[in-house]
Write a structure and sequence with these properties.
alpha/beta; Chemotaxis Receptor Methyltransferase Cher, domain 1; Rossmann fold; 2 domains; seven-stranded mixed beta sheet; three-stranded antiparallel beta sheet; 11 helices; binds S-adenosylmethionine
Length: 287
């Protein structure tokens, strides 16, 4: 692409905060990649400008050159988190893509029948965003008639802001209209504070934590089912391989992995194999 049309020619401290030089873009992109795995190609210069402009202004940096100088010298944790957070894409909806949840609906009774009665079922949503995926899993669990079996659903995301939203379980009229059926809305949500709040039986099944997939995943424990959906698309191949390897290590025997519609383990790792007839669902290969 013709980068001269995208980047400012200079990066002097007087540069308007809403223009970024190629040098500064590359420094920010590398910073974001190293901390989160998120890859920002040259075509994302506009995105970086628009999303970081507020940070530049609020923190009174002279411009993007000033911001990158700080990143090189002594970035504090709060600034680093704000930058990464601003560069995440948190698009999500209830029962996204439908099919993984149809599979889950069929698979839960199979696991229930196979597992010892008191063994907890552990499910992890590894890029939970604002929580719709976790609550969709929880609703599916509640409707699966698993008797007294304990079920623990963990939702994690690199974005503390999104995790705080997920914990609140409060969604706008627009958000509940994306993916939720009317009977589910009436059954599992209550009108509150201008939106809809998830009810306790669903909320109680889910725990949320801020967690970066680049970090050690071992403290999270092991899981029977892992939803790692629509996040690998932001990573490069070595990062996808590393993350899938680390997830594989967290899988209980017989564990399944659910990926997003544009994601695959094919050509990335041989630690997972596709489940026959179930697009987006992969079985962890035994150790
Ligand atoms: C597009 S959303 C996907 C949400 C949900 N899984 C879905 O499929 O609807 C991607 C999420 O991945 C999170 N994310 C990006 N990099 C991450 C990382 N290194 N560790 C954990 N979460 C990350 C973002 O904050 C964002 O909320």
């Amino acid at each position: 692409m013709n980068t001269t049309t995208v980047f400012a020619k200079t990066a002097s401290p007087g540069t308007r905060p809403d223009t970024i030089s190629q040098t500064d873009f590359l420094a920010i992109a590398e910073f974001v990649r190293a901390r989160s795995g998120i890859v920002l190609g040259l075509d994302k210069a506009y995105l970086v400008e628009s999303r970081l402009e507020q940070i530049v202004r609020n923190r009174r940096f002279g411009g993007f050159a000033d911001l990158t100088a700080r990143l090189r010298s002594h970035p504090n944790e709060a600034l680093a988190n704000d930058i990464v957070e601003a560069m995440t894409t948190n698009e999500t909806l209830f029962f996204r893509d439908t099919k993984p949840f149809d599979h889950l609906r069929r698979h839960l009774p199979v696991m229930h029948a196979a597992y010892p009665a008191t063994q907890p079922l552990r499910i992890w949503s590894a890029a939970a965003s604002s929580g719709q995926e976790c609550y969709s899993i929880a609703i599916t669990v509640l409707e699966a008639s698993l008797g007294t079996r304990p079920v623990q659903i963990l939702g994690t995301d690199i974005s503390a802001e999104q995790i705080a939203r997920a914990q609140q379980g409060l969604y706008s009229e627009f958000e509940v209209q994306r993916g939720l059926s009317t009977p589910s809305l009436i059954k599992y949500f209550r009108k509150a504070d201008g939106g809809w709040r998830i009810t306790d039986p669903v909320r109680k099944l889910v725990e949320f934590r801020t967690w970066n997939l680049m970090d050690d995943l071992r403290p999270l424990g092991t899981f029977d089912l892992v939803f790692c959906r629509n996040v690998l698309i932001y990573f490069d191949l070595p990062t996808k391989r590393r993350v899938l390897g680390a997830i594989w290590e967290r899988m209980a025997p017989g564990g399944l992995l659910y990926l997003g519609g544009a994601e695959t383990t094919f050509g990335v790792t041989d630690k997972f194999v596709p489940c026959a007839g179930s697009h987006q669902v992969y079985a962890a290969v035994p150790a």
